[in-house]
Automatic annotation (TrEMBL):
Species of provenance: Spartinivicinus marinus
Enzyme class: hydrolase
Single GO biological process annotation from the record: proteolysis
Name of the protein described by the UniProt record: Aminopeptidase N
Gene3D superfamilies noted in UniProt: 2.60.40.1840, 3.30.2010.30, Neutral Protease Domain 2, Peptidase M1, alanyl aminopeptidase, C-terminal domain, tricorn interacting facor f3 domain
Cofactor(s) the protein needs: Zn(2+)
InterPro entries according to UniProt: Aminopeptidase_N-like_N, Aminopeptidase_N-like_N_sf, PepN_Ig-like_sf, Peptidase_M1, Peptidase_M1_dom, Peptidase_M1_pepN, Peptidase_M1_pepN_C, Peptidase_M1_pepN_C_sf
Gene, per the UniProt record: pepN
Length: 881
């Protein structure tokens, strides 16, 4: 390992910096061999702190060659400063002073994709969280906010476009033929929001007039070949700008907003001030190359990064423990934006499903942490589902507690109080409290306690007194470092159904949903004037990120699945019914007993298929069996192969029992309309392709249908759905057809990076026999590239996360494949290596032989020399827990 003893950073040790930086001037002379970075920093002693003497200035910096340091214009000789692998310490003699540093870096050799690096010949940056220190020596922490002025110098033939944050204020040509441009950002910002791009790029331009009448120039930059793929992102950007004005009263502040698409990117996108940089897969789309999922993801991510301009940039984080301050809030904002633009119930179902599958698993594993962690070794490891997705659920609960208008009052107060500041989650909660005169003291435990609370509900009906009582108990399992949890404040939205399936009025105002404020370990709620024994509908709308236990019978679940007035809970009842049935089947499969499908699941599906009034988007969700990942999350001990077998069996039975219904709905939804990514059209395609996936189980008889859809589809959504069905169709005669379709798909789209990611993913997800050998062979394919995170995610990530039957095969070769990549990427790109590790960290939840084999791979990784902090932290925690 690089550091013998990697340091743990604690929230409790936070201190303000000794110095502030007011102005940062940067110049980049971009070269093919060497890039020269010059900085000029205006520093000022932090007078909030008491100092006996002027402390040395300790700047962060790695991976660069220091060429020169000046303080107030005077050269500082090597003997006068102290240089380590991670810092540069300078002597200080004045309270305010200027530091000038010259360093050299090699972006073309930077495969970590953090700092300044190259992607397809283009220079670009990624500074959050601590990438800026790979560019120059700096106080690289979010509470140090400066005004930036940046000059970029490069050869105009290769890099005609040179961008940074803010407005371009000057440009010119040097004697050596290189051109330069200077950008100035009038807003103070931390270094993590700095960005630079230089390359040979095209752009599309548009305009947006803000609510106060200012005209903003909007530009999306991409490589020339992708210029026809930017329109959807531009439309999404304009929608986001309008939505943030309408819903939060937030107006854009610079005169220009730019987005740049790059192929090599560790995450989805980055909210750099005025210059968002995006993973190309999260910005580029056209109907014949992008699926509906991609269209919706682009809208959500463009919105997310745009919304950060207020929740993140104007008001930023004091330190990285506060990451959820900007991420949880911004995910909540983008989820509401997507809900307003598309189907609200479907968005809620998707988000809750994702949280319960993936974040609950994180909460139950060795890396469980609160949404505001107490400590970290490598901050990049804390861009987690907990900080983001659970963080958003915590903000949503506040929204539900104070109501829509109260939340707006709270966010107005928060932005007004803290504009231009770097603050903590405490300030956010305080603003919500102060604006609404509510007490969120107990609620704050959501920020400090890890784990998923479980609420156990029992009920009692008293016919004589016409009273109904619900008793709610809460418990939160221990997580690493936190054994005893105090009770949470959990808002539990409930309804009561009468025997006809109608909602019962719960108060004089006639409300049929009520939020129970559960604050104690055990609490009883009494409902009066209840004429008959009701059936409770619990945690409506998924009102809190918790698990609910109530002893529903399968008949009661079937009843709720067809009667609950809460769209989310109708879906949820169907899911619970399916989970109950699939768990029983999995248990039987494990014992090699014969399987039969409970007819109630068929009834529930038939009712959905025959209900023409139902929103097709919701219907598609109701007709999807719980994923193997979700079923695994529910299990005490996970036996992945039994889960797979049970789910495949149920799918097959449903396909056969309802074959006519699947076909009827599939045919009813045929359309020759031109492609549009509207909510209504997406819903119809999603229901149609759900039907197709069941039809693809039916052996030879439906193969012609799949082949026809593959060949005649005029948009990628339908084409990809057909390809996926063909690749996964179990019937033997499907094999040659699938092979031909895959070859045809490759032939047609081999030059298109985004489509090739899809092509790899569909093969990586195939669970049929023989698929693993094929996946191994794809590593050698020219469409694969270990230095591109999207390709790693498409092939190796998809395989490990979504292909349980091959990943968990009993020989352990699936685990070995993943561990081999973690070891290779530990050197090439530590952030991606550490993320890829996730499935192995869950080893303790699996039955044998899986558990021992997964652990052995972790031990093998742990023994590697030169482990990055990223991988070290995750492996160490996994083995220790
Ligand atoms: N803020 C960035 C994430 C940066 C991750 C750095 N390892 C994207 C986002 O959440 O909007
Ligand atoms: Zn974000």
């Amino acid at each position: 390992m690089k550091d013998a003893q990697p340091k743990t950073i604690y929230l409790k040790d936070y201190q303000e910096p000794d110095y502030w930086i007011d102005n940062t001037e940067l110049s980049f002379d971009l070269g093919e061999e060497i890039t020269v970075v010059q900085s000029k920093l205006s520093l000022r002693l932090n007078e909030n702190k008491t100092h006996n003497n002027l402390p040395p200035l300790v700047l962060d910096g790695t991976d660069q060659v220091l060429k020169q340091v000046l303080v107030d214009g005077k050269t500082i000789e090597p003997g006068q400063y102290k240089l380590t692998d991670e810092t540069l310490a300078l002597p200080v003699t004045q309270k305010t002073f200027i530091v000038e540093v010259t360093t050299e870096i090699k972006p073309q050799e930077n495969t970590s994709l953090e700092g300044l690096y190259k992607s397809n010949g283009m220079f670009c940056t990624q500074c959050e969280a601590e990438g800026f220190r790979k560019i120059t020596y700096y106080l690289d922490r979010p509470d140090v906010m400066a005004k930036f002025k940046t000059t970029i110098i490069a050869d105009p033939k290769q890099y005609p476009v040179m961008l940074s944050n803010g407005n371009d204020i000057a440009k010119g040509e040097r004697e050596d033929g290189k051109q330069w441009v200077t950008w100035e950002d009038p807003f103070k910002k931390p270094s993590y929001l700095f960005a630079l791009v230089a390359g040979d790029l095209s752009n599309i331009t548009d305009k947006y007039t803000t609510c106060s009448g200012r005209e903003i120039t909007l530009k999306i930059f991409t490589e020339h070949k992708n210029i026809d793929k930017c329109d959807h992102a531009m439309t999404s950007l304009k929608k986001s700008m309008k939505w943030d004005e309408d819903v939060y009263g937030r107006e854009y502040d610079l005169d220009i907003f730019m987005i740049v698409a790059v192929d090599h990117f560790n995450m989805g996108a980055m909210e750099n001030k005025g210059l968002n940089i995006f993973n190309s897969s999260c910005v580029l789309a056209k109907p014949d190359t992008a699926t509906d999922n991609a269209y919706q993801r682009i809208e959500a991510i463009v919105g997310h990064e745009y919304f950060h301009n207020w929740s993140g940039n104007r008001v930023t984080c004091r330190d990285w423990f506060q990451l959820s301050l900007k991420e949880g809030f911004t995910v909540f904002r983008d989820a509401e934006f997507s809900a307003d633009m598309n189907s609200r119930p479907v968005k809620r179902i998707e988000d809750a499903n994702f949280l319960r599958t993936a974040q609950f698993a994180e909460d139950a594993g060795p890396t469980a942490h609160p949404i505001r962690p107490d400590s970290y070794i490598e901050i990049s490891n804390f861009y987690t589902l907990t900080v983001y997705e659970k963080g958003a659920e915590v903000v949503r609960m506040i929204h539900n507690i104070v109501g829509k208008e109260g939340f707006r009052k709270g966010s107005d107060l928060y932005f007004e109080r803290h504009d231009g500041q770097a603050v903590t989650t405490e300030e956010f909660v305080k603003a919500m409290e102060d604006a609404n005169q509510v007490d969120l003291i107990q609620f704050r435990r959501w920020y400090s306690q890890a784990g998923t609370p479980v609420i156990t509900v029992t009920d009692q009906y008293d016919n004589n007194n016409q009273q109904y009582q619900l008793t709610v108990k809460q418990h939160c399992p221990a997580t690493p470092g936190q054994t005893d949890k105090k009770p949470f404040h959990i808002p539990v939205a409930i309804g009561l159904l009468d025997p006809e399936g109608h909602d019962i009025a719960l108060n004089n105002a006639g409300d049929t949903t009520q939020v129970l404020d559960v604050t104690e370990q055990q609490q009883t709620f009494t409902f009066k004037n209840i004429a008959q024994q009701p059936l409770p509908s619990l945690l409506r709308g998924f009102s809190a990120p918790v698990k609910v236990k109530y002893p529903y019978s399968r008949d009661q679940l079937l009843f709720l699945a067809s009667h609950d007035s809460d769209g989310f809970n109708r879906w949820e009842a169907g899911q619970q019914l399916a989970v109950d049935i699939l768990e029983e089947l999995a248990e039987k499969a494990r014992k090699n007993q014969s399987l039969t499908l409970d007819d109630r699941l068929i009834q529930a599906y038939r009712a959905v298929l025959q209900d023409e009034q139902l929103d097709p988007a919701v219907a598609a969700k109701m007709l999807a069996l719980p994923s193997e990942g979700y079923l695994a999350e529910q299990a005490e001990t996970i036996y992945p192969l039994a889960i797979h077998q049970a789910r495949e069996f149920a799918k097959q039975q449903l396909a056969e029992a309802l074959s006519e219904d699947w076909l009827a709905v599939y045919q009813r939804l045929q359309s020759d309309k031109a492609y549009q990514p509207t909510a209504a059209d997406i819903a119809e395609r999603s229901l149609k392709n759900t039907c197709l996936s069941y039809l693809s189980q039916l052996g030879e008889q439906q193969l012609a249908l799949l082949e026809k859809q593959y060949q005649t589809a005029t948009n990628m959504t339908d084409k990809y759905a057909a390809l996926s069905c063909l690749v996964n169709a179990p019937a033997e005669p499907a094999k040659p057809i699938a092979k031909t379709a895959l070859a045809d798909f490759y032939q047609r789209w081999q030059e298109d990076v985004q489509v090739m990611e899809q092509w790899l993913a569909v093969q990586a997800n195939c669970s049929l026999p023989g698929a693993f050998e094929h996946i191994l062979s794809l590593q050698e394919h020219e469409a694969f590239d270990i230095t591109n995170p999207n390709k790693i995610r498409s092939l190796i990530g998809q395989f490990a996360m979504n292909n349980a039957v091959h990943f968990h095969q009993e020989t352990g070769v699936g685990y070995k494949l993943l561990a081999d990549y973690v070891i290779k990427l530990n050197i090439v790109n530590p952030q991606i290596a550490s993320r890829l590790l996730t499935p192995l960290t869950r080893w303790k939840r699996y039955g044998e032989p899986h558990q021992a084999q997964m652990k052995a791979e972790l031990v093998r990784i742990r023994k590697q020399p030169e482990l990055s902090k990223d991988v070290y932290e995750i492996v160490e925690k996994s083995l220790k827990a």
